[in-house]
Amino acid sequence: MAIGLYIHVPFCVRKCLYCDFTSYPYHPLDDQTYLQALRQEMHLYGKILSSEEWEVSSLYIGGGTPTCLPADGLAAIIEDAGCVFKLLPGCEITVEANPGTISREGLARLAAAGVNRLSIGVQSFHDRLLKVLGRIHDARTALEAVRAARKAGFDNINIDLIFGIPGQSAGDWLETLGLAVELSPEHISLYGLQLEAGTPLEQAVSLGKLAPCPEELELFMYMTAIDFFTGHCYEHYEISNFARPGRQSVHNLKYWLNLPYLGLGAGAHSCFRGERFANETSLKLYFDKVFRGEYPVKDREVISEKIAMSEFMFLGMRLIRGVDLDLFHRRFGKRAEDVYSSQINRLLEQGMIEARDGCLRLSEKGLPVANRVFCEFL
User: Fold this and answer.
1) Which residue from 57, 69, 7 is spatially nearest to 33, judged by alpha carbons?
2) What is the span of the domain harbouring residue 357?
3) DSSP 253
4) Which residues neighbour 336 within 8 Å (Cβ) at sequence distance 6 or greater?
5) Mean pLDDT over residues 66-72, rounded?
6) Same domain, yes or no, for 252 and 316?
7) What is the largest CA-CA distance in the chain?
8) Is pTM beyond 0.90 here?
9) What is the pLDDT, as a whole number, of residue 20?
10) Are residues 142 and 13 in the same domain?
11) Following DSSP, what letter does each residue of 271-293 receive, concatenated?
12) DSSP letter at 69?
């Protein structure tokens, strides 16, 4: 089975106020060193991969802000990946982009390099909310970025949107939904804002400088978005994701279906050869290990059958179609209804999940409180 390949670019022009991901301030002097390290890490894996593991059906370059790097640098990453791995025909190649770091010339270079899917971090179409989030772009720049990507020839564009921002009103959200549909992206990802401990935004809320979004308003935003996008011919195929027919994210489906993926770069995560492992987040440690010819892994965990079954259930439950019970049986040789009989019966009785077409899926009641359902399978 072909794997997914994730490549992490841990640089940002400026860290957003809500972000707790691994990222560092970008400096042009970092370019060549980081590209060289990625190339070295690719070759380390190239020496041990089997012919099956060598095949890649999705390549995702995320961050951070990958478009901090010059487009030629991103093109070099794709070229290097193509030399070490076999990028299958039709391989989905995605690059995450910040509207504030996109140019027409850069977009054209990415398209020429084989990028066929662009994920643009719009987050909001309101300047005051973008300021609350600490984004480097404004609403006009976001609109222009999506339009420029279309003119550059991209026919598979995702836009990210955030709801539940302090100060965001129902009217703001409805306007955002309308503008999103006007842009007609092939894919839309929605994220409820998480106030991660220690981030500047969480601290501002804790100190009373900003009022958190009320839970009932956040729920309204989520449920309204579902009705709005499905009413405009988007398929709601995963808790947070909507797509035009045939435009679901190939790469992200690997995560939700618990399929193998390999992560390269500082802070990247992998699920590969029955293990889950994470690279060093420190650039220094990452560089030191890679240039010594070592795998830059910081933490490693063997995925037991118990863990694999648990992850199959709660990750699969993220999909609107739900967990494929026949696939569970074929993969583990056991029936999910037997392994998780008490949990499944309890959730069915509570109306949190439902059985349909050979799958167990979140019900309309369970969808807004999905995390509560997932906890039953941990």
Assistant:
1) 69
2) 308-377
3) H
4) 309, 313, 323, 325, 328, 329, 344, 360
5) 95
6) no
7) 59
8) yes
9) 86
10) yes
11) EETTEEEEE-SSHHHHHHHHHTT
12) S
